[in-house]
Specification:
The complex is a heterodimer of chains A (275) and B (283). With 275 residues, chain A is mainly alpha-helical. In chain A, 82% of the residues lie in helices and 0% in strands. Chain A has 2 domains: 49 residues; 209 residues, Orthogonal Bundle (MetI-like fold). In chain A, helix 7 packs across helix 8. By secondary structure, chain B is mostly helical. Chain B folds into 2 domains: 56 residues; 209 residues, MetI-like (MetI-like fold), CATH 1.10.3720.10. Chain B is built from 10 helices and no strands. In chain B, helix 3 packs parallel to helix 6 and helix 9 packs antiparallel against helix 10. The longest helix of chain B is centred in the first third of the chain and has 48 residues. Chain B is flat and about 85 Å long. Classes of the chains: A mainly alpha (275), B mainly alpha (283). Chains A and B meet through helix 1, helix 4, helix 5, helix 8 and helix 9 of A and helix 1, helix 4, helix 5, helix 8 and helix 9 of B.
Chain lengths: 275, 283
């Protein structure tokens, strides 16, 4: 028989606690799943009492999805492309501009009210103008998404590159690093937690902007597919497109979340403090 | 400076002398910064206007009307714009009130039960990633073409951040303060109103500020998708009829409205925090 030592008892207690926590977590997740199923069931019950053209239930939505699949698939591909391009453009622009502005107190002082203005104005309100200027294709959606994604990255880059540990900067300078090297290898890297938070916000804003631009411009993307279904009173198609759109939004958000984790782990940085 | 040249005899006078020099230098630096900021901003605005004028010279007026044409259109169409502003403002206000009331109310309820909070939290996090504006066509199918669907859209978008902030805020009560309240024999109701609600106030006010901006967004998107009244609807209509000067005017007015909502919300949040003695850094 194993000797009942102090270490043995402590290990047993740790295992017991771990098991208890695991069971608690499983219980929580089961409860969440149960709530989800209950909501789906409620949706089905309520929808059964209404016309499918007004409120399609889960089954009708799936049928509509299958029926309109070609339309939804092309729309999904277009929307995914638009979000990717707009988001990438906005992030890159935000990083570059944020780096420049963050290094210059003069620029910050001059631009401060304009930055606030840019933040306060919903870029989505500019959608009709941009559609008028750039047409009904992919470009206006990409531009609007880039404009929306720009600000969070810009602001967080400016904050991030300013808040680095000054001792590190002095060390770099003492070792003879050029300003560019100090920036590229130190400030920017240590600003990454803050920047990645901005990037996460940016992807959500880019998604929303793309959807709204597709509502306004139509013709391309899942938003346009929803408008087609809306015009034809094919509500199941609208619901189906909404489900796919939701999945795309979630995929992008959690994709960026994973990238954030990977990047922070690669550079050995702590995740940003939760405000 | 030779010690004899300084206009100071005692230690205190010396200190005062250098202090005054430093204060004067600070004031000079501040004045210089203000001047640079002013000149820089004026240059930027002038550059933007000049750029606009230049683009209007190169592009056909149906795409880019000149600043002058836009101003003339504003004077000509001011009735239309004026008539369409109240519906939008009403949608924003009602949507904000409805979304806030629902968000705070539901948040208060959910925060009472640890199980409810545990179940709801991951769904809340996930809902941040979902583009809620995509629900606009569905809301219009349910609620029709009128103001109700826009109010519902604004309320729906404004609801979520308030729900989340209320739940987080109510959970945020300092455990030591909680023990103090319990030690002094406070009833659960007293603990709730005097401690939890008070600790939640900064987050709730911040949530209200976010909700105001989001309600504006929701109202605008609702009008984009289906509207015949309101500034957003006017925007889409003028886009469709290629009345570009009217489009630009309406856009400027709508931008001003959104900016007004933002500034008002910021100011109200500051004032509310100050009144509750919660203002200050780090809150």
């Amino acid at each position: 028989m194993r000797e009942v030592t102090r270490e043995f008892l402590k290990a047993k207690e740790t295992r017991a606690r771990a098991t208890r926590l695991w069971r608690e977590r499983v219980g929580e997740n089961l409860a969440r799943l149960a709530v989800l199923l209950a909501v789906l069931g409620l949706w089905h019950v309520v929808a059964a009492r209404h016309d499918a053209a007004l409120l399609p239930g889960p089954g009708d939505t799936y049928a509509g999805l299958v029926r309109g699949w070609s339309l939804i698939w092309t729309g999904a591909v277009d929307t995914v492309t638009e979000i990717a391009l707009g988001f990438a453009a906005g992030v890159v622009a935000g990083l570059v501009l944020g780096s420049l502005i963050g290094q210059s107190k003069t620029l910050q002082g001059v631009l401060h009210p304009f930055l606030i203005l840019y933040q306060a104005v919903p870029k989505i309100g500019l959608a009709p103008m941009i559609v008028l200027l750039l047409g009904f294709g992919i470009l206006p959606k990409v531009v609007l998404a880039a404009m929306s994604a720009l600000f969070p990255v810009l602001e967080n880059t400016i904050l991030g590159v300013q808040r680095v540990d000054e001792d590190g900067v002095r060390l770099f300078r003492a070792l003879g690093a050029s300003p560019f090297q100090t920036y590229w290898k130190f400030r920017l890297i240590h600003a990454l937690p803050s920047i990645m938070t901005g990037v996460r916000v940016a992807v959500v804003l880019a998604t929303v902007s793309v959807v709204v631009a597709e509502f306004v411009a139509g013709r391309i993307g899942l938003g346009a597919t929803m408008m087609v279904g809306y015009a034809q009173l094919d509500t199941a198609l609208v619901f189906g497109a909404l489900v796919v759109l939701t999945l795309i939004g979630l995929a992008y958000y959690f994709g960026v979340f994973l990238i954030e984790r990977l990047v922070l782990r690669w550079f050995n940085l702590a995740p940003p403090a939760r405000s | 400076m030779a010690p004899e040249a300084l206009p100071a005899k005692t230690h205190a006078e010396l200190f005062q002398y250098f202090h005054d020099l430093e204060v004067a230098a600070e004031a000079r630096r501040a004045r210089r910064t203000r001047r640079i900021n002013f000149v820089g901003r004026v240059l930027l605005v002038a550059g933007a206007l000049g750029g606009w004028w230049l683009m209007a010279a190169f592009y056909p007026p149906v795409l880019v009307p000149s600043p002058g044409a836009t101003w003339r259109a504003f004077l000509a169409e001011i009735d239309t714009i004026w008539k369409n502003t109240p519906p939008t403002m009403l949608e924003i206000a009602l949507g904000f009130l409805a979304g806030s009331a629902l968000g705070i109310g539901l948040g208060g309820l959910i925060a009472q039960s640890r199980w409810a909070e545990v179940i709801v939290t991951p769904y809340l996090v996930v809902s941040q990633a979902v583009p809620k504006v995509a629900l606009a066509p569905i809301l219009i199918i349910f609620l029709g073409y009128g103001m109700g669907s826009k109010v519902a859209m604004a309320a729906l978008i404004a609801f979520f951040p308030l729900l989340e902030n209320t739940i987080t805020g109510l959970r945020r009560a300092d455990p030591d303060s909680l023990r103090l309240f319990q030690a002094l024999g406070a009833s659960p109701w007293q603990i709730f109103t005097k401690l939890r609600v008070f600790s939640a106030l900064p987050l709730v006010f911040a949530g209200l500020r976010i909700a105001a901006v989001l309600a504006t967004l929701g109202a605008i998107v609702g009008e984009f998708v289906a509207g015949n009244r309101g500034l957003g609807a006017l925007l889409v209509i003028s886009m469709g009829t290629f009345s570009t000067p009217l489009l630009y005017c309406t856009m400027i007015v709508l931008t001003a409205l959104a900016l007004g909502v933002y500034v008002l919300a910021q100011w109200l949040e500051r004032k509310a925090l100050e009144r509750c003695n919660l203002a200050g850094p780090g809150i």
